[in-house]
Amino acid sequence: MKKAIALLIIGISLAPVLAGGKQPATAAAGVTESSGPANSRLEVPAALVGRWSNGSITAANFYNSEAQQWRAPKGTGLFLAVQADGRYALGGGECVGAGEEAITYFFYQEGTIIAGESQIVLNPFTGTDYTQCGGIAAREEQWLAAENELQPSSFRFQIVAEASGKATLVLINEQGEQVSLRQSAE
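Predicted structure:
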């Protein structure tokens, strides 16, 4: 819950949407896991698979989860990368001001996605954030779902085709707040 509050403070475009995930979400009608062993991945509609982003932030050069190191995140915005096997990565942030007045905040999480025709549930299992204010040393904090620092988030979604051949993913939380992410090539 404190992560959702931090996101609201910096005001990035996904913050109101993520704030809807304060309480554990339940799968909606039509949202199911694939059958098979407990460690099997989840099936995701093909239209959701890929990389989606807004602003200047993309998954490239953002965070290396295996080494648990920030690469060189810059800019403002967010990205969502969805794999066909049901894994996702979500990251974003904002840099405002300059010099001693600068505030930088980035977050990154990984998890599994449960998806149906028009509903998804993001179930994060690990995440981290990075904050730096002015010239003060940066602070990084790891968080885990097992410690109740991360909660599932449920969204309705729409995929809107564009004349350019790309698409826009619109995520809408339970309060009706929405964010749009464009399909990205990376």
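Summary: The CA atoms of residues 62 and 69 lie 9 Å apart.
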